[in-house]
Write a structure and sequence with these properties.
Helix content: 55-70%
Largest sheet: 5 strands, mixed
Order of helices and strands: HHHHHEHEHHEEEHHHHHHHHHHHHHHHHH
Strand order of the largest sheet: 2-1-3-4-5
Distance between the termini: 110 Å
Number of strands: 5
Structural class: mainly alpha
């Protein structure tokens, strides 16, 4: 019976003695199994399945001495061991003792001085040579190794995907690392979006044990390395000698956080086939969907290339692709369709993405590749939520809630806290959307709870970007719940959450995010101010809206800029009403007029009409308080424009505008009679 049959690990078929110290793989444990025999250094090189004669053993035991590699051995020689080295040293001492000592004449003074000078030069050269070309010190801090090895990723092309390949355990000759890098280079993506960076050897270059130590340290500190370098994807893992498999894990940023990394896993054959290379490289590129610094065109081109490369393979997959690789194939296709669907606002692409995610779920199977399955459920839930929000399809949002809840069951906080927090945030978004639409306060309350659970992991110190984003989303859920429940205390909690978010989403670091949070903060303050007749709160809302406008570019953020102007107009009009004055009406009219310039009647008829109605309200008030007939006439025209659209798009709202129109017409007659 061979080792694999003896240990029969159904999850990975990896015998205990194939897992090296510091391995990322789970150790199989069977009560009825016998532990493999501990091998001595003398017998280790002659095992079945061991490396070829002359090469280092890459599967050391915890109690084995590290192998000493003799670079000068003959073609048929065995690897040198500590015992062989000691024997060689003893023989050298014997030879030295047998050598006769021959007296030499003393050198002349001139030659002695010259000799000292030559020795000094040689010594200095030796020191410099040792410093720059000699063996490197043992690894104490992998961070120091990264500093020396990895270039400044901020200086590379910002529109490329930076991929760092760390040393692989059991890959002393870097053969498998070379295969991985070659596989990445086969996928063109968006005009070569992949950058491969190989870290230098920070250990003793001729010591296989130090190489193993280096790879183990890299594996243990992968998240910290990814965070330190700012890499978009960090690849690490190990080669399994007995199974000829390459176990790779990848860290990549989640939700554009740049500091919050998820980990994915792939099992690949060490002899890459064409299809396997394509699936692997396309999966790496599909991770660009979470990289916020790439522009839309680069991501769109990359996703199109992903579809072009993977679609033929998915139609007729070859038998050498494993179930996990097929799952990765369908998952990458889903990512590509999802991104393109969002960019083009194409519901068909979103539906196609969901279909691909469902195919991936069948390949992963819930209880076989549980982590892959849970991450796939997360992405499917996000796609279902996006489709449901876009097309007002509540059934899809309900399916998203189910998918995300199932993923949370299989990805508990105790196993993967960062992924668990991400799932909680996505679940909260779906609950908040459906709860708002259905006026379901319980769903809104559940959304608030989910966001607060996410914050128990996404603390400000370690995950500032995610902390700020989740605080913003928590504020939105509290705002919706507070308005539905008519509870000022909940709205006050929303204000607290928004203000917390602004501590991270600053105007300097995240100007657009800062502006969006300011808009939501202003809306909540205005709701509180209107309920309490508190002009101070309404004035704070005005400040928030103006802060948002200062950070928004009208050309690149048309809707956000126009929304901020429209909201500012509402706050100024409310302030004028509360103060019973016309001091802020002109500014309110200006804000509404600027917003109207960005709302197109053909493409955005409802917003255009609502803004026309609000312009009518301001003009109506100005005409009444100033007894200005021209303002009233302009108000009537604005009301009529609003009704012409709202009678079709929002009949109930149109009835209220008709009532305002009638009052304006009466006012017009009253002013005319008084004059």
């Amino acid at each position: 019976m061979n080792d694999k049959e003896k240990w029969e690990n159904p999850a990975s078929d990896i015998p205990e003695d194939a897992v090296s110290p510091g391995s990322i793989l789970p150790k199989p444990a069977r009560a009825d199994s016998v532990a493999p025999e501990v091998r001595s250094p003398e017998t280790r090189g002659r095992e079945v399945g061991a490396p070829e004669v002359g090469g280092p053993d890459v599967r050391p035991r915890a109690n084995d001495p590290l192998p000493i590699i003799d670079r000068n051995q003959g073609a048929a020689g065995q690897p040198s061991t500590a015992k062989a080295a000691d024997t060689f040293a003893a023989d050298a001492q014997d030879r030295l003792a047998e050598t006769p000592i021959i007296a030499k004449p003393k050198p002349k003074p001139g030659r002695r001085i010259l000799g000292l000078c030559v020795a000094a030069v040689i010594g200095a050269a030796a020191v410099l040579g040792y410093q720059y070309f000699g063996p490197k010190p043992e690894v104490e801090s992998f961070a120091a190794c990264v500093d020396r090895s990895v270039p400044n990723l901020q200086a590379v092309d910002g529109q490329k995907l930076s991929v760092i390949l760390l040393p692989l355990i059991n890959d002393a000759e870097n053969i498998q690392s070379g295969l991985v890098q070659s596989a990445l280079e086969t996928f063109e993506g968006s005009d070569g979006p992949l950058i491969q960076v190989q870290t230098v050897d920070c250990a003793l270059v001729d010591d296989a044990g130090s190489l193993l130590k280096l790879a183990s340290i890299a594996s243990e500190n992968s998240v910290e390395i990814a965070r330190k370098t700012g890499a978009d994807v960090l690849i690490w893992g190990e080669v399994l000698p007995d199974d000829q498999l390459l176990e790779l894990r990848m860290n990549y940023p989640v939700d554009s956080g740049r500091a919050h990394f998820a980990t994915d896993q792939l099992a690949l054959k060490t002899d890459f086939g064409t299809d396997q290379e394509t699936v692997f490289a396309a999966k790496i590129w599909s991770m660009s969907t979470v990289v916020d610094r790439l522009d839309a065109d680069s991501i769109s081109d990359g996703m199109a290339a992903t579809l072009e490369a993977l679609t033929p393979i998915s139609v007729n997959p070859k038998p050498e692709l494993s179930l996990q690789q097929l799952g990765n194939l369908y998952h990458a296709l889903g990512d590509a369709e999802y991104v393109l669907g969002l960019q083009t606002e194409d519901s068909n692409r979103l539906e196609s993405a969901i279909d691909h995610y469902r195919s991936a779920a069948e390949m992963f199977e819930r209880y076989r590749f549980t982590d892959d399955w849970a991450r796939n459920q997360n992405d499917m839930g996000v796609a279902l939520t996006a489709l449901g929000k876009k097309d007002n399809r509540n059934q899809e949002i309900g399916l998203a809630i189910t998918a995300l809840q199932d993923a949370i069951v299989e990805m508990p906080r105790s196993r993967a806290p960062l992924m668990w927090a991400q799932l909680q945030g996505h679940l909260a978004e779906a609950l908040n959307t459906l709860g708002t639409r259905d006026a379901n306060n319980q769903m809104l309350a559940d959304a608030v709870s989910a966001y607060r659970l996410a914050l128990t992991v996404q603390d400000r110190e370690n995950y500032p970007v995610q902390w700020g984003t989740t605080q913003h989303n928590l504020g939105a859920a509290l705002q919706a719940l507070g308005q539905r429940a008519g509870d000022p205390a909940i709205l006050e909690d929303a204000v607290i959450a928004y203000r917390a978010a602004l501590e991270v989403r600053t105007a300097e670091n995240l100007p657009k995010d800062h502006a969006i949070t300011q808009i939501n903060l202003g809306s909540t303050l205005m709701s509180l101010g209107a309920r309490a007749q508190n002009t101070e709160l309404v004035s704070e809302a005005v400040v928030a809206y103006r802060a948002a406008i200062d950070q928004l570019d009208k050309e690149n953020s048309v809707i956000e800029w126009a929304t901020a102007q429209h909201s500012l107009g509402n706050a100024l009009a409310l302030l004028a009403e509360q103060n019973d004055s016309t001091d802020n009406l002109d500014a309110a009219l200006m804000a509404f007029s600027l917003a109207l310039e960005s709302f197109d009647r053909q493409t955005d008829p409802t917003r255009w009409a609502v803004t026309q109605n609000n312009i009518g309200n301001v003009l109506h008030t100005m005409g009444d308080r100033r007894r200005d007939p021209e303002a009233v006439i302009a108000a009537i025209a604005a009301y009529e424009a609003a009704v012409s659209v709202l009678s079709e798009t929002a009949p109930a709202y149109a009835e209220r505008v008709v009532e305002s129109l009638a009052r304006a017409q009466v006012l017009q007659q009253t002013i005319a009679q008084s004059n």
